[in-house]
Amino acid sequence: MKLRSKLSLYSTLSKLLVLIAFIVIVPIIISFVSTQHTDSRLTNMKDKVIKLVDKVGIKEFLEEEEDSVFASYNILKEEYISIEPTDKVIPSPVFENTSRIWEDATVDYRLLTVTFRHAGHLYLMEIGKSLAVVKDLNGVLQRVAFFVLIISFAITILLNIGYSNYLLRPFHLIIEKKLKTVNHPEKFNFETIPTTTADFVYLDQTINEMMHKIKNTFAREKEFISNVSHELLTPISVLQTRFENMLSEGRLDEESYMRIIDSLKTLNRLKKVTNTLLLISRIENAQYLKNDVVSLKDLANEVISEIEERFTEKNIAAHILFSDDFRMQASNRDLLFTLLFNLVNNAIKYNKPEGEIFIRGYLKDEYFLLEVEDTGIGIPAEHLSNIFSRFKRVNTTLTEGFGLGLPIVKTIADFHEIRVEVASEPGKGSIFRLVIKNS
Ligand code: ADP
Questions:
Q1: N or C: which end of the chain has fewer CB within 10 A?
Q2: Helices 405-415 and 254-284, interaxial angle, to 10°?
Q3: Position 77 pLDDT exceeds 80
Q4: CATH number of the domain enclosing 399
């Protein structure tokens, strides 16, 4: 799971927990606050009524009723007040939820009961507020609270996602601009990624330092291989001439003659390897020009005619199937020839007798794809990742080859910014695909 998704998930879950806690707690708080508020309103009303009684006298209230009990409620029975004489003192105001019957209807009230004195007499007063009204108000308050909560929950989640994207941008830039695009330390992008986050500055610097070290090691290794190959070629040529002279002088007995022939074969192999290593290091050192425009269809035809003999030897059929031609700009014809030659050569080498080879060329999106497919022995999946390494040979039953064919393919492809893909099924065959940017 991506860091960005993890951060967003964590923040969403933690907010969800808070939201759940609020959903449980908010109704309790609202009902507590609203009860307190109702009680204080009832106390205010009680104070006002007592003041009114003091001002206008108790008769205004009691004379209206025959049994000397005053009772008043509004038409919807949302509030009511009753006053009646009593002889029992209630020491402090009592608040309770209770019901009263009015006109055959039972109504639930929040009720304040108090006793008060007026003109030397004791009176009992009840002031009630309908619980239905209180509950209605609670409901409205709860809905508003939930609405506000959910909206703020959604807003903070969106803000969090936006912020974590912004925060992780330098991290993605490091991956996209530096790590993903690098296929050679020479081409590494050492520019500093703009960020104010110290951790990303540190990561960027560490990667830059690491790439500097790798680049230096690469350069030293390249120089070493180039020097060694170059130095080896002279003694190899000297030995080769010496052996050839010994053969042409004709003074050797048969056994020595055969030994010299074997030595010449070994020397030839050594020369090929050395030349190949030199070729690779020269390409890597960009000692080749790229100023040819090459038709890949023509190139495929040339490779096939160059290698025709081998097709006949193994009785293999070659098919060139180009649905589009592609003229590759800024390229080196000889190197591209070597690249395709090596792929076709392998397709013959690792094919079955009477097998087939397909060379396809077609445009796909912004790419031109050049494929070499064979019906040969295939490559086991576990070896696919290292067939492009130097001297790596999967199938060592064949004596020809040094394990340098595919490294050359890869080096030339890198030099031309071509991507190489391989798909293979053991026993069925392989497809080597060159992915060329159509620019
Ligand atoms: P080699 O000189 O051994 O052919 P390469 O570098 O050309 O060296 O290839 C490396 C290894 O990849 C080979 O040893 C072979 O096992 C495998 N290989 C390359 N091309 C093919 C192919 N078309 N089919 C099957 N195996 C292949």
A1: N
A2: 20
A3: no
A4: 3.30.565.10
Give per-residue pLDDT as tens, 254-306: 999 999 999 999 999 999 999 998 898 889 888 899 999 999 999 999 999 99
Residue nearest to atom 12 of ligand 1 (CA): 387
Does 127 lie in the same domain as 244?
no
Nearest atom in ligand 1 to the alpha carbon of residue 372 is: 23
Identify the domain containing residue 240 by its residue range: 198-284
CATH number of the domain residue 238 falls in? 1.10.287.130
Residue 145 domain-assigned?
Answer: no
Tell me how far the alpha carbon of residue 403 lies from the centroid of ligand 1, in angstroms. 7
- From 269, 279, 344, 349, give the residue whose CB has the most ligand 1 atoms within 8 Å, as the site to mutate: 349
Whole-number pLDDT of residue 68 = 64
For 257-322, give the DSSP string.
HHHHHHHHHHHHHHHHHHHHHHHHHHHHTT-S---EEEEHHHHHHHHHHHTHHHHHHHT-EEEEEE
Total count of domains within the chain: 3
What is the number of the ligand 1 atom nearest to the C-alpha of 400? 2
| pLDDT on residue 15 | 84
Closest ligand 1 atom to Cα of 393: 14
CA proximity to 123, closest of 46, 55, 38:
46
Residue 245 and residue 304 in one domain = no
| Per-residue pLDDT tens over the stretch 112-143 | 999 999 888 899 999 999 888 888 888 888 88
